[in-house]
Design brief:
Elements lengths: L23 E5 L6 H22 L4 E5 L6 E6 L10 E5 L3 E6 L2 H17 L7 E4 L5 E8 L16 E2 L2 E2 L3 H11 L5 E5 L16 H13 L3 E6 L3 H4 L11 H17 L5 E4 L16 H12 L5 E5 L16 H9 L10 E6 L14 H4 L5 E6 L15 H8 L12 H6 L8 E5 L15 H12 L5 H13 L3 H21 L37 E2 L18 H6 L9 H4 L2 E2 L10 H24 L7 H33 L11
Parallel strand pairs: 1-2, 1-3, 3-5, 7-10, 7-16, 10-11, 11-12, 12-13, 13-14, 14-15, 15-16
Antiparallel strand pairs: 4-5, 4-6, 8-9, 17-18
Helix pairs in contact: 1-2, 6-7, 12-13, 13-14, 14-17, 17-18
Bound molecules: 4-O-methyl-alpha-D-glucopyranuronic acid.
């Protein structure tokens, strides 16, 4: 399938300013004998060439040099500089720009950043910009299956797999280029639910193709990760158990890792979903998750590989009648007792919230609980529960809030951002997002969903950048420099998460989506299911009490967070039904009763979508017809969805309560 260049389309209109510097390029220190560095530096040089010829219609004059030039752009690779991996420094003088880095990744990122700054007009004379990546691991997880389908994929088919085989084509390189341009340095290409043929990926299946992908990724400074099936040796017939303490099992994994690293020396490591939603894991053998993770980590350790172990472990066979079990507790309960037991090259990958990527959840209490364990935060930009790339829902403001949350873990504030960027041993920490890409020409289905991919990368590199800055920058390089367009796109993006929250499930309760595919409303769709996702609405009220009189999940937070959520006077409205069961006439901090809030927010959410359509429509003559029309169509679909949510939720609660809407709006 053909593809577009997303934000890397250098033919878009750029700002006036320093553009001319791209015409003349001096490469300093690029003559390295290190093959890994050489290939990344070649990508950097290629990028400048591309930018120059696309912007000016003419290739840049590129020379290998020993020192920086006095005009044009000089790109300096100098390993003796005191800079971390991926860091760069950009200096400008009157007619010249110098990019310096001590790592080839730093050179590549510096080049991408310079091009963006040139395109957006942000590079003036005499500036110095020093950047170094906040998170050492900046990762995407693809849930791609060998048959080419993508679990929770909303933008076409896989571009890694087709007909039960891995493959590479031009798009593989374009993908690597796209995600490297925002600093992604780690990618797991296959679904964490590892089935069938995918089980063999670790042990030789499609090895040549795997090598090809790793090589292309390597050219862009990206490490390949493989999701594995914990029961691989047994499933592949090599052992009759997958017990992590069994000698044959450990030996099988050791040999498997040795062979893999012989072929792919730059492999990042493995990603594991175990004992979760039917996947095999150490529980079957009476072993702990530390036993399982460490056994695999020890196979990787001699090669410098990392073992990323997911904490999304809960009972998905729950009896809805049993109110003593609370899924929100599960992640913490399963892992807190293992703090300090994981090897140094194990990282726990923890979903941002205790449930599962709902439009509003509190931060997972596990971040505040673990003190001696490496952690990464897992976000989802695939929008499984937030509109599936059919509805626009810009998630960066949500991620920012989560990253700024104080857990009071240990002696200090325990800010999530610090836990995932600073607290890992030997840089074993970071941020990961479940990817939103597929083989749709625009990569992300909805054109505006690409802002989530761009924004996640930017945030993992620099959590201080604001959601507004990201939206503005992304719009300028995606649609071309036009203040009216970027202002309007930013407005739509910034109102989209609140709008989605308003027209879907109220006050943090979540889970009113259609079962299975998870798009659109079904108020009781999960109410009598085994998935542990209940709201328990009756004629008096709704919510699961998670405080002292309920499941005590709130106790998993450290003080003062615990009291903050326990106490109704401080518990914020947007999460109040996540933590407490309330009656419909309970008065929120907003001054509205719960039932009034439900009605008002659902009407407002749908109105917000109408506003977004109005804003987008005003851009008709300023955006190319293709992207204008396809986005407009999606927004119109979103309005239908928002109205469906509004009417179903309002009607459901009106029927339960009999409380009429004060403003007499239409409820069915
Ligand atoms: C990959 C949710 C999704 C599943 C997904 C799972 C996970 O439950 O609905 O499709 O499986 O999360 O994160 O492992």
């Amino acid at each position: 399938m053909s593809y577009e260049f997303a934000w890397l389309n250098y033919k878009n209109k750029i700002a006036d300013g320093f553009g001319d510097c791209l015409k003349k390029v001096a490469l300093v220190g690029f003559d390295t004998s290190d093959r890994t560095d050489a290939s990344i530096l070649a990508s950097a040089a290629d990028e400048i060439k591309r930018a120059s010829s696309d912007i000016f219609g003419k290739e840049a004059l590129i020379t290998a040099s020993t020192n920086s030039g006095t005009d044009g752009i000089s790109i300096v690779f100098d390993k003796t500089l005191n800079m971390t991996d991926g860091a760069y420094c950009i200096n400008t003088r009157k007619n010249s720009v110098t990019i310096k880095a001590a790592s080839s990744r730093g050179v590549l990122y510096g080049v991408f950043r310079t091009i963006t700054l040139v395109r957006t007009g942000k590079l003036g004379e005499n500036v110095e910009i020093k950047e170094s990546p906040a998170s050492s691991i900046r990762m995407l997880n693809h849930w791609d299956n060998p048959d080419g389908s993508i679990e929770r994929g909303y933008s076409g088919r896989s571009f890694f797999f087709k007909n039960n085989h891995l493959y590479t084509d031009d798009r593989t390189r374009e993908y690597a280029r796209l995600v490297a341009s925002v600093g992604i340095n780690s990618v797991a290409i296959n679904n964490v639910n590892v089935n069938d043929i995918a089980t063999g990926l670790v042990s030789g299946y499609d090895r040549n193709e795997l090598i090809d992908i790793a090589k292309i990724f390597g050219d862009y400074g990206i490490k390949l990760y493989i999701s594995l099936n914990f029961a691989s040796p047994m499933s592949l017939g090599a052992t009759d158990t997958a017990d992590p303490l069994d000698g044959d099992v450990a030996a099988w994994w050791k040999k498997t890792a040795d062979d893999l690293y012989k072929d792919i020396p730059q492999l990042g490591g493995f990603l594991v979903k175990a004992d979760s939603e039917g996947r095999p894991g150490p529980f079957s053998y009476g072993r702990t998750h530390a036993d399982g993770a460490n056994m695999l980590a020890r196979a990787l350790a001699p090669h410098g590989g990392l073992l990323i172990w997911r904490c999304f472990v809960y009972n998905c066979q729950q009896d809805w009648r049993d109110q003593s079990v609370d899924r929100a507790r599960a992640c913490y309960d399963n892992f807190i007792g293992l703090d300090g037991e994981f090897d140094d090259n194990v990282i726990l990958q923890i979903k941002n919230g205790p449930m599962d990527f709902q439009v509003r959840e509190p931060v997972s209490p596990l971040f505040g609980g673990l003190c001696k364990t490496n952690m990464m935060i897992e976000f989802q930009i695939a929008q499984e529960y937030t509109g599936q790339q059919k509805d626009v829902c810009y998630l960066i403001p949500m991620f920012k809030q989560i990253l700024e949350f104080k857990t009071y873990n240990g002696s200090g504030d325990g800010i999530i951002r610090d836990i995932v960027t600073k607290n890992g041993k030997n840089g074993c920490c970071g941020m990961v997002a479940v990817s939103n890409t597929g083989d749709d020409p625009n990569w992300t289905g909805h054109d505006l969903a690409a802002a989530n991919l761009y924004g996640f990368g930017r945030l993992a590199f620099d959590p201080d950048v604001t959601a507004e800055e990201i939206a503005d920058e992304w719009s300028r390089i995606t649609f071309g420099v036009d203040d009216l367009v970027s202002g309007s796109v930013k407005q739509i993006l910034m109102m989209s998460w609140p709008a989605y929250e308003k027209y879907t499930s109220p006050l943090g309760i979540g889970w009113m989506i259609s079962p299975g595919h998870h798009y659109g409303p079904d108020v009781e769709g999960y109410e009598f299911s085994p998935w542990g996702t209940y709201h328990r609405s009756d004629r008096n009220g709704l919510g699961v009490e998670r405080g002292k009189t309920g499941t005590r999940m709130i106790d998993q937070y450290n003080e003062p967070v615990r009291s903050f959520y326990e106490n109704l006077e401080t518990c914020p409205d947007e999460l109040v039904l996540f933590f407490h069961r309330l009656n419909y006439d309970y008065v929120l901090k907003s001054g509205k009763t719960v039932i009034e809030h439900i009605y008002d927010s659902h009407f407002e959410g749908a109105e917000d979508v109408e506003k977004m359509i109005g804003i987008w429509s005003s851009l008709q003559d300023r955006i190319d017809a293709d992207r204008f029309e396809r986005t407009k169509k999606r927004l119109e679909g979103q309005l239908k969805n928002a109205c469906e949510w509004r009417d179903r939720i309002n009607t459901y609660y009106f029927r339960h309560t009999g409380v009429p809407d004060k403003l007499g709006r239409k409820i069915y």
